[in-house]
Amino acid sequence: MDIKLIVDEILKAKNRSLSWLAAEMEKTFDGLKLSLVRGSIKYNDIILMSRILEVSPSYFFEQEHDVYSLKESSTTAEDEPEYGSMKRELKVCKEMIAALKDQIKDKEKIITLLSR
Known about the structure:
Largest sheet: none
Radius of gyration: 17 Å
Oligomer: single chain
């Protein structure tokens, strides 16, 4: 399972956002998001993230996750649609595209400022 999806599940269970996590980790939103999507997050960041999210670092690498145990209320799990994982992956890809487009815009601004 993709580490971004795991982090999203934990944040959803705790009613927090990725921008909150980025601020707590003292990272930029885009930087944290890209490192999660690409799977290039550093070991120290995983340790810090696990402390902030109050989960074991091994939770990010387990095959199965009990997301509902993270919630304080006891709700029953609904069946995931047949193509649920593909929809999540598509969402992650779209988020990555948006982040990369933002980076391109920023770099274009820098180039125009430097060329003046």
